[in-house]
């Protein structure tokens, strides 16, 4: 069996620095399991590392698409598989790093995705979201797939559209499909590490990160994206930070309100991420509230040796 390492957890928990240390310790290459870092020009709001910050560790699935291009879990699965084959050829270990749980699940358990033809339905839904609002679109999902509606926040327009599109094409809820796929066994010899922190500490780190992003020029980044012709009609611009600042630039809210909304919605996002990971099988948890990075790394390496991954 081929080896695979997963390092995940909620946003701002401290995955990035640990992933670099882990990759250098095991001869690994990092595959970004993030739905936003795949886009070019969106650097500050997605917390991308610069080339220097990557410390010589090879990273994949970063800066691959323009913000006008759609990006689905099926595309991620295909691109990740291609990257992994190259990594294995070099004799290295792929490390999936990021907080998008469904992306990780799709690779780890080879989730099957049925082909869907392009008939403009997803684009139609995005236009409707602009016209009638995300809450109304979410209510439509509630009517056909209550389980998905419960799991997906109304503001996560991309996932709401994905679930509605699935039902449109297959006339069956995507939640049922996901339930069936979740019992699949992995073909990899893997370790699935999840980082967590005490809630107050995690939320304080989120607030600190948002402040840092503004100091680094998040507003200017969004303004530049607008000058390049990207707007709320593009799914990428619905990401955390971008959506709220677009509302500010349209004069709908103040800059202070935009910043507070980013903090609040990022905290809600982190909570949903933790809920997802708690439902996953075979996870190994580390509480960064009580463990240092050095302690976590040492324990991870011990587990990887015991599993025969390294």
Topology at a glance:
Elements: E1 2-8, H1 15-26, E2 28-32, E3 59-60, H2 73-89, E4 93-97, H3 101-108, H4 121-132, H5 134-144, H6 146-151, H7 157-170, H8 174-182, E5 188-196, H9 199-216, H10 218-227, H11 242-249, H12 255-279, E6 283-287, H13 293-306
Parallel strand pairs: 1-4, 1-5, 2-3, 2-4, 5-6
Helix pairs in contact: 1-13, 2-3, 4-5, 4-7, 5-7, 9-12, 10-11, 11-12
The top-level CATH class of the largest domain is: Alpha Beta
| DSSP helix fraction | 40-55%
Helix-strand makeup class: alpha/beta
CATH superfamily of the largest domain: P-loop containing nucleotide triphosphate hydrolases
| Order of helix and strand elements from N to C terminus | EHEEHEHHHHHHEHHHHEH
Query: Which spans of ≥5 residues are poorly predicted at pLDDT below 50?
Result: none
Number of domains: 2
Side by side, the strands of the main sheet go 3-2-4-1-5-6
Largest sheet: 6 strands, parallel
Overall pLDDT score: 93
CATH architectural group of the largest domain: 3-Layer(aba) Sandwich
What share of residues are in beta strands?
5-15%
Number of strands: 6
Tally of contiguous helical segments: 13
| Rg (CA only) | 19 Å
Choose one word for the global shape.
globular
Termini separation (Å)?
13 Å
| CATH topology description of the largest domain | Rossmann fold
